[in-house]
């Protein structure tokens, strides 16, 4: 028997997030564990008049990173290229059976593959900016993710579905209400120039001059809940210590501290897995610059779960991402990296915009 929440989930992804139209080629990429959702998505795309294709992965990345030679690490699949350049819609579903499978993979090997994939990543961002590619990412609840969040599977499923507003009679209408509420913040920020963030864990300034904020309300992530932009590339000055671990392929990099001068990370350290942090900063020239500044707005997500899709939306937090920026928001930084790192503001801290108090102790005041 199909969980009715899966049907609602697929409906929201197809008809709200990606807004599938008749005749569109829609690719569904998912792990085997997510087959129950894949089937509902496939059916929903067909009902919308789209042409669905399914790409399943079997969780064998560990074999690839450990066995591939340098040529194989840098090989770009023609199939991956065609999907990136020609698909009208892409559904990326995540969900691991083992979130720690890559814990002992050499970070340098992952960085080599990541650098080789940078041109396709840039193409994907460009097509999304031009509205030629509709993309949404979501996560299917598995035992592994439930363990990371220190929940039972049933508790984690409830957490996931609640964060996606699937308990609502009309989830799409609920996300439209979120969009309206967040738009007020985005409108307030329009035309502003300078942001300063100060707390016990941060003393940082950056420019948003000429940049646009996006109202993230379920169109590209599910769940969602943030407002974000790409800061001016050479503008970040100061330091930040991220209060939550930064997850990368199941590895937790804890106690990250970054110091910026004229936009560039000039000093970086971490209390745990510092080698992974440093390897990502060396992927390419753009990896040492910021691609994103964001404020989490989903107050239904309160606790760290070890999954960035949820954690970056925590109401009362802000996050920064090193690496690729968003062209549609004015971002110019190009990189094969886009890595989000989160800082809690609920225990104190302020964000001022052009000298005016905008955010205090984890909530908006402007």
Major β-sheet annotation: 8 strands, antiparallel
What is the percentage of strand-forming residues? 25-35%
**Strand arrangement across the biggest beta sheet:** 14-13-10-6-5-18-19-20
> How would you classify the helix and strand content by structural class?
alpha+beta
Record field, number of beta strands: 20
First-last Cα distance: 48 Å
- Mean of residue pLDDT? 94
Helix fraction, binned, reads 25-40%
Poorly predicted sequence stretches spanning 5 or more consecutive residues: none
Query: How many structural domains?
Result: 2
Radius of gyration: 20 Å
- Coarse shape: globular
| SS element count, helices | 12
Explain the overall architecture.
The protein has 366 residues and is α+β, with helices and mostly antiparallel strands. It folds into two domains: 4-171, Thermophilic metalloprotease (M29) (Thermophilic metalloprotease-like), CATH 3.40.1830.10; 188-364, no CATH class. The chain is built from twelve helices and 20 strands. Strand 18 and strand 19 form a beta hairpin.
Describe the structure in brief.
The chain has helices at 4-17, 35-47, 61-67, 70-73, 78-86, 107-116, 118-129, 143-148, 153-163, 171-189, 274-281, 308-311; strands spanning 25-31, 51-57, 89-94, 134-139, 194-199, 202-207, 214-216, 221-222, 226-229, 237-241, 246-248, 251-253, 257-261, 264-269, 290-296, 317-323, 338-344, 350-353, 356-360, 363-364. The chain has 366 residues and is α+β, with helices and mostly antiparallel strands. It folds into 2 domains: 4-171, Thermophilic metalloprotease (M29) (Thermophilic metalloprotease-like, 3-Layer(aba) Sandwich); 188-364, no CATH class.
